[in-house]
Amino acid sequence: MSEFSLIKQYFQNATNTHTYTDVGIGDDCAISSLPESQQLVSCVDLLVADRHFPLDTDPYAIGWKSVAVNLSDLAAMGATPYAILLGVSLPTADNDWLKAFSQGLADICQQFCVQLIGGDTTKSEMLTISVTALGTIPHGQGILRSGAKVGDVICVSGEIGNASFALQQILKREKNRTLQSALDLPTPQVELGQKLHGFAHSMIDISDGLGQDLGHILTASDVGAKLFLEKIPTHPILQSLPNPEKWQHQMNGGDDYHLCFTLSPENYVKLNTEYPNTIFAIGEIVTEQGLQLFSDGEKVDFSVNGWQHF
Length: 310
Ligand code: ADP
Ligand code: MG
Fold this sequence. Notes:
alpha+beta, 7-stranded mixed sheet, 4-stranded mixed sheet, 13 strands, 33% helix, binds adenosine-5'-diphosphate, binds magnesium ion
Protein backbone atom coordinates (compact mmCIF):
# COMPACT_ATOMS: atom_id res chain seq x y z
CA MET A 1 0.00 0.00 0.00
CA SER A 2 1.36 3.44 -0.89
CA GLU A 3 1.75 6.17 1.74
CA PHE A 4 -1.04 8.17 0.12
CA SER A 5 -3.57 5.36 -0.09
CA LEU A 6 -2.77 4.48 3.53
CA ILE A 7 -3.51 8.06 4.62
CA LYS A 8 -6.68 8.11 2.54
CA GLN A 9 -7.95 4.76 3.79
CA TYR A 10 -7.22 5.09 7.51
CA PHE A 11 -6.90 8.76 8.38
CA GLN A 12 -8.48 11.15 5.87
CA ASN A 13 -12.06 10.42 6.91
CA ALA A 14 -11.44 9.04 10.39
CA THR A 15 -13.15 11.93 12.16
CA ASN A 16 -15.95 14.45 11.67
CA THR A 17 -15.27 17.97 10.47
CA HIS A 18 -15.14 20.53 13.27
CA THR A 19 -16.76 23.93 12.74
CA TYR A 20 -13.37 25.67 13.30
CA THR A 21 -11.74 23.86 10.37
CA ASP A 22 -11.47 25.60 6.98
CA VAL A 23 -8.96 23.17 5.40
CA GLY A 24 -8.32 19.68 6.80
CA ILE A 25 -6.25 16.72 5.58
CA GLY A 26 -5.10 16.85 1.97
CA ASP A 27 -3.10 20.05 1.58
CA ASP A 28 0.32 21.09 2.92
CA CYS A 29 -1.22 22.42 6.12
CA ALA A 30 -4.59 22.65 7.80
CA ILE A 31 -6.28 26.05 8.23
CA SER A 32 -8.53 26.83 11.19
CA SER A 33 -10.52 29.86 12.33
CA LEU A 34 -10.94 30.12 16.08
CA PRO A 35 -13.54 32.34 17.79
CA GLU A 36 -12.04 35.68 18.86
CA SER A 37 -13.01 35.10 22.47
CA GLN A 38 -10.72 32.07 22.71
CA GLN A 39 -7.01 31.42 23.21
CA LEU A 40 -5.29 28.50 21.45
CA VAL A 41 -4.00 25.79 23.82
CA SER A 42 -1.57 23.23 22.37
CA CYS A 43 0.50 20.23 23.46
CA VAL A 44 2.29 17.20 22.04
CA ASP A 45 3.11 13.75 23.38
CA LEU A 46 5.42 11.14 21.93
CA LEU A 47 4.74 7.42 22.39
CA VAL A 48 7.45 4.89 21.59
CA ALA A 49 6.62 1.17 21.42
CA ASP A 50 8.18 -0.91 24.19
CA ARG A 51 8.82 2.24 26.22
CA HIS A 52 5.37 3.79 26.67
CA PHE A 53 3.41 0.61 26.00
CA PRO A 54 4.29 -3.11 25.72
CA LEU A 55 4.96 -4.21 22.10
CA ASP A 56 1.94 -6.51 22.01
CA THR A 57 -0.56 -3.85 23.17
CA ASP A 58 -3.89 -3.98 21.34
CA PRO A 59 -3.56 -1.48 18.44
CA TYR A 60 -7.06 -0.15 19.20
CA ALA A 61 -5.79 0.81 22.67
CA ILE A 62 -2.65 2.43 21.21
CA GLY A 63 -4.85 4.60 18.95
CA TRP A 64 -7.15 5.51 21.83
CA LYS A 65 -4.42 6.21 24.34
CA SER A 66 -2.20 8.26 22.05
CA VAL A 67 -5.08 10.75 21.79
CA ALA A 68 -6.24 10.34 25.41
CA VAL A 69 -2.90 11.39 26.91
CA ASN A 70 -3.02 14.65 24.95
CA LEU A 71 -6.66 15.40 25.72
CA SER A 72 -5.72 14.86 29.36
CA ASP A 73 -3.07 17.60 29.06
CA LEU A 74 -5.68 19.93 27.53
CA ALA A 75 -8.09 19.00 30.34
CA ALA A 76 -5.42 19.92 32.88
CA MET A 77 -5.54 23.52 31.63
CA GLY A 78 -9.35 23.57 31.62
CA ALA A 79 -9.33 23.66 27.81
CA THR A 80 -11.87 22.35 25.30
CA PRO A 81 -10.26 20.00 22.76
CA TYR A 82 -10.60 20.96 19.09
CA ALA A 83 -8.22 18.99 16.86
CA ILE A 84 -5.20 16.69 16.67
CA LEU A 85 -2.31 16.18 14.26
CA LEU A 86 -0.85 12.67 14.05
CA GLY A 87 2.76 11.75 13.31
CA VAL A 88 3.22 8.02 12.94
CA SER A 89 6.20 5.93 11.92
CA LEU A 90 5.58 2.24 11.34
CA PRO A 91 7.76 -0.80 10.63
CA THR A 92 5.16 -2.17 8.16
CA ALA A 93 1.81 -1.09 6.71
CA ASP A 94 -0.16 -3.92 8.30
CA ASN A 95 -3.85 -3.55 7.40
CA ASP A 96 -5.28 -5.22 10.51
CA TRP A 97 -3.05 -3.16 12.78
CA LEU A 98 -3.86 0.11 10.98
CA LYS A 99 -7.59 -0.62 10.98
CA ALA A 100 -7.71 -1.22 14.73
CA PHE A 101 -5.35 1.68 15.50
CA SER A 102 -7.31 4.20 13.43
CA GLN A 103 -10.58 2.92 14.95
CA GLY A 104 -9.31 3.53 18.49
CA LEU A 105 -8.18 6.99 17.46
CA ALA A 106 -11.46 7.72 15.68
CA ASP A 107 -13.59 6.55 18.62
CA ILE A 108 -11.97 8.82 21.17
CA CYS A 109 -12.03 11.74 18.72
CA GLN A 110 -15.74 11.14 18.19
CA GLN A 111 -16.40 11.00 21.93
CA PHE A 112 -14.71 14.37 22.51
CA CYS A 113 -15.69 16.12 19.22
CA VAL A 114 -12.08 16.28 18.06
CA GLN A 115 -11.02 16.39 14.38
CA LEU A 116 -7.86 14.83 12.92
CA ILE A 117 -6.70 17.75 10.74
CA GLY A 118 -3.29 16.54 9.54
CA GLY A 119 -0.18 14.53 10.21
CA ASP A 120 2.78 12.75 8.73
CA THR A 121 3.37 9.06 7.94
CA THR A 122 6.78 7.40 7.60
CA LYS A 123 8.46 4.02 7.88
CA SER A 124 10.90 3.15 10.68
CA GLU A 125 12.13 0.16 12.69
CA MET A 126 10.29 1.12 15.86
CA LEU A 127 6.64 2.07 16.03
CA THR A 128 6.49 5.70 17.18
CA ILE A 129 3.42 7.88 17.49
CA SER A 130 3.33 11.58 18.10
CA VAL A 131 0.02 13.35 18.62
CA THR A 132 -0.25 17.13 18.78
CA ALA A 133 -3.50 18.36 20.29
CA LEU A 134 -5.10 21.78 19.90
CA GLY A 135 -7.80 23.19 22.11
CA THR A 136 -9.37 26.46 23.13
CA ILE A 137 -9.95 28.32 26.33
CA PRO A 138 -11.72 31.63 27.03
CA HIS A 139 -9.11 34.42 27.29
CA GLY A 140 -7.21 34.36 30.57
CA GLN A 141 -9.00 31.27 31.93
CA GLY A 142 -6.17 28.73 31.62
CA ILE A 143 -5.56 26.90 34.91
CA LEU A 144 -1.81 26.77 35.56
CA ARG A 145 0.40 24.74 37.89
CA SER A 146 1.59 27.91 39.57
CA GLY A 147 -1.60 29.14 41.25
CA ALA A 148 -1.86 26.97 44.39
CA LYS A 149 -2.47 29.01 47.58
CA VAL A 150 -1.82 28.14 51.22
CA GLY A 151 -5.05 26.75 52.68
CA ASP A 152 -6.22 25.25 49.37
CA VAL A 153 -7.79 21.81 49.39
CA ILE A 154 -5.93 19.33 47.14
CA CYS A 155 -8.26 17.14 45.09
CA VAL A 156 -8.07 14.35 42.54
CA SER A 157 -10.73 13.31 40.05
CA GLY A 158 -10.86 9.55 40.73
CA GLU A 159 -9.09 6.31 41.65
CA ILE A 160 -5.31 6.54 41.63
CA GLY A 161 -2.85 3.70 41.01
CA ASN A 162 -5.01 1.43 38.83
CA ALA A 163 -2.93 1.82 35.66
CA SER A 164 0.32 1.15 37.51
CA PHE A 165 -1.19 -1.98 39.06
CA ALA A 166 -2.40 -3.15 35.63
CA LEU A 167 1.07 -2.63 34.13
CA GLN A 168 2.59 -4.69 36.92
CA GLN A 169 0.12 -7.51 36.17
CA ILE A 170 1.21 -7.49 32.52
CA LEU A 171 4.92 -7.43 33.35
CA LYS A 172 4.44 -10.33 35.78
CA ARG A 173 2.46 -12.15 33.04
CA GLU A 174 -0.47 -12.66 35.37
CA LYS A 175 -3.70 -13.97 33.88
CA ASN A 176 -5.95 -11.71 35.98
CA ARG A 177 -6.13 -8.40 34.08
CA THR A 178 -9.05 -6.79 35.93
CA LEU A 179 -7.70 -3.25 35.73
CA GLN A 180 -6.27 -3.42 32.21
CA SER A 181 -8.71 -0.87 30.78
CA ALA A 182 -7.43 1.74 33.26
CA LEU A 183 -4.03 1.34 31.59
CA ASP A 184 -5.14 0.87 27.97
CA LEU A 185 -8.23 3.05 27.62
CA PRO A 186 -7.93 5.98 30.02
CA THR A 187 -10.70 8.58 29.95
CA PRO A 188 -9.35 12.13 29.89
CA GLN A 189 -11.19 14.30 32.43
CA VAL A 190 -12.16 16.96 29.91
CA GLU A 191 -15.59 17.84 31.27
CA LEU A 192 -14.35 18.25 34.83
CA GLY A 193 -11.40 20.37 33.65
CA GLN A 194 -13.84 22.79 32.01
CA LYS A 195 -16.04 22.95 35.12
CA LEU A 196 -13.04 24.06 37.17
CA HIS A 197 -12.74 27.47 35.43
CA GLY A 198 -13.09 30.10 38.08
CA PHE A 199 -12.79 27.47 40.83
CA ALA A 200 -9.39 25.75 40.76
CA HIS A 201 -6.28 27.80 41.59
CA SER A 202 -3.91 25.23 40.06
CA MET A 203 -4.15 21.97 38.13
CA ILE A 204 -2.07 19.18 36.54
CA ASP A 205 -2.89 15.77 35.07
CA ILE A 206 -1.43 12.71 36.75
CA SER A 207 0.70 11.03 34.11
CA ASP A 208 3.96 10.39 36.01
CA GLY A 209 2.62 9.52 39.47
CA LEU A 210 0.64 11.60 41.96
CA GLY A 211 3.72 12.33 44.08
CA GLN A 212 5.80 13.75 41.28
CA ASP A 213 2.95 15.55 39.52
CA LEU A 214 1.67 17.20 42.71
CA GLY A 215 5.34 18.08 43.32
CA HIS A 216 5.26 20.13 40.08
CA ILE A 217 2.33 22.17 41.45
CA LEU A 218 4.19 22.72 44.74
CA THR A 219 7.40 23.84 43.03
CA ALA A 220 5.62 26.08 40.53
CA SER A 221 3.47 27.63 43.29
CA ASP A 222 6.29 27.85 45.87
CA VAL A 223 4.25 26.08 48.56
CA GLY A 224 4.17 22.68 50.32
CA ALA A 225 1.48 20.09 50.97
CA LYS A 226 0.10 17.63 53.48
CA LEU A 227 -1.37 14.53 51.86
CA PHE A 228 -3.63 12.11 53.72
CA LEU A 229 -2.97 8.81 51.99
CA GLU A 230 -6.10 7.05 53.27
CA LYS A 231 -8.23 9.69 51.52
CA ILE A 232 -6.95 8.82 48.03
CA PRO A 233 -9.76 7.08 46.08
CA THR A 234 -8.62 3.47 45.81
CA HIS A 235 -9.92 0.45 43.88
CA PRO A 236 -10.77 -2.54 46.15
CA ILE A 237 -7.97 -4.58 44.55
CA LEU A 238 -5.38 -1.98 45.55
CA GLN A 239 -7.03 -1.52 48.94
CA SER A 240 -6.23 -5.15 49.72
CA LEU A 241 -2.47 -4.64 49.13
CA PRO A 242 0.02 -3.90 51.92
CA ASN A 243 0.31 -0.11 52.36
CA PRO A 244 3.82 0.37 50.90
CA GLU A 245 2.85 -1.56 47.76
CA LYS A 246 -0.40 0.40 47.42
CA TRP A 247 1.39 3.72 47.94
CA GLN A 248 4.02 2.73 45.40
CA HIS A 249 1.29 2.39 42.74
CA GLN A 250 -0.51 5.55 43.82
CA MET A 251 2.36 7.95 44.52
CA ASN A 252 5.03 6.69 42.12
CA GLY A 253 3.13 4.76 39.42
CA GLY A 254 1.98 6.66 36.36
CA ASP A 255 -0.53 6.67 33.54
CA ASP A 256 -3.64 7.45 35.61
CA TYR A 257 -4.67 10.54 33.61
CA HIS A 258 -6.78 11.84 36.44
CA LEU A 259 -6.63 15.52 37.36
CA CYS A 260 -4.98 16.83 40.50
CA PHE A 261 -6.03 20.38 41.40
CA THR A 262 -6.26 22.81 44.30
CA LEU A 263 -9.11 25.10 45.28
CA SER A 264 -10.27 27.17 48.24
CA PRO A 265 -12.19 25.28 50.97
CA GLU A 266 -15.34 27.28 50.05
CA ASN A 267 -15.09 26.33 46.39
CA TYR A 268 -14.41 22.73 47.34
CA VAL A 269 -17.68 22.59 49.29
CA LYS A 270 -19.56 24.28 46.45
CA LEU A 271 -18.26 21.90 43.76
CA ASN A 272 -18.55 18.81 45.92
CA THR A 273 -22.21 19.64 46.59
CA GLU A 274 -22.95 20.34 42.95
CA TYR A 275 -21.09 17.31 41.56
CA PRO A 276 -21.02 14.65 44.27
CA ASN A 277 -18.54 11.78 43.87
CA THR A 278 -16.62 13.65 41.17
CA ILE A 279 -13.90 15.37 43.17
CA PHE A 280 -12.05 13.87 46.12
CA ALA A 281 -10.18 15.89 48.76
CA ILE A 282 -6.85 14.25 49.64
CA GLY A 283 -4.83 16.97 51.32
CA GLU A 284 -4.08 20.64 51.84
CA ILE A 285 -1.61 23.24 50.70
CA VAL A 286 0.68 24.53 53.48
CA THR A 287 3.46 27.12 53.79
CA GLU A 288 6.15 24.61 54.75
CA GLN A 289 7.95 23.46 51.59
CA GLY A 290 7.89 19.82 50.50
CA LEU A 291 5.36 17.03 50.53
CA GLN A 292 4.40 15.53 53.91
CA LEU A 293 2.56 12.22 53.85
CA PHE A 294 0.18 11.01 56.55
CA SER A 295 -1.68 7.75 57.03
CA ASP A 296 -4.45 7.55 59.62
CA GLY A 297 -3.01 10.50 61.52
CA GLU A 298 0.60 9.24 61.57
CA LYS A 299 3.40 10.81 59.55
CA VAL A 300 4.71 8.34 56.96
CA ASP A 301 8.26 8.07 55.67
CA PHE A 302 7.78 7.03 52.04
CA SER A 303 10.04 7.99 49.16
CA VAL A 304 8.36 9.79 46.26
CA ASN A 305 10.16 9.46 42.95
CA GLY A 306 7.77 8.88 40.00
CA TRP A 307 8.62 8.38 36.36
CA GLN A 308 11.54 10.13 34.62
CA HIS A 309 13.02 9.26 31.23
CA PHE A 310 16.58 10.42 31.98
P1 ADP B 1 3.59 16.93 2.88
O1 ADP B 1 4.47 16.23 1.90
O2 ADP B 1 3.13 18.29 2.47
O3 ADP B 1 4.14 16.87 4.29
P2 ADP B 1 2.11 14.55 3.12
O4 ADP B 1 2.18 13.89 1.81
O5 ADP B 1 3.02 14.10 4.19
O6 ADP B 1 2.22 16.10 2.90
O7 ADP B 1 0.63 14.43 3.65
C1 ADP B 1 -0.47 14.67 2.81
C2 ADP B 1 -1.65 15.10 3.65
O8 ADP B 1 -2.01 14.04 4.50
C3 ADP B 1 -1.35 16.29 4.54
O9 ADP B 1 -2.52 17.09 4.59
C4 ADP B 1 -1.06 15.67 5.87
O10 ADP B 1 -1.42 16.53 6.94
C5 ADP B 1 -1.94 14.43 5.84
N1 ADP B 1 -1.39 13.30 6.62
C6 ADP B 1 -0.27 12.60 6.43
N2 ADP B 1 -0.10 11.61 7.32
C7 ADP B 1 -1.18 11.70 8.15
C8 ADP B 1 -1.60 10.99 9.30
N3 ADP B 1 -0.89 9.99 9.82
N4 ADP B 1 -2.75 11.40 9.89
C9 ADP B 1 -3.45 12.42 9.42
N5 ADP B 1 -3.14 13.12 8.33
C10 ADP B 1 -2.00 12.78 7.70
MG1 MG C 1 4.44 15.18 5.31
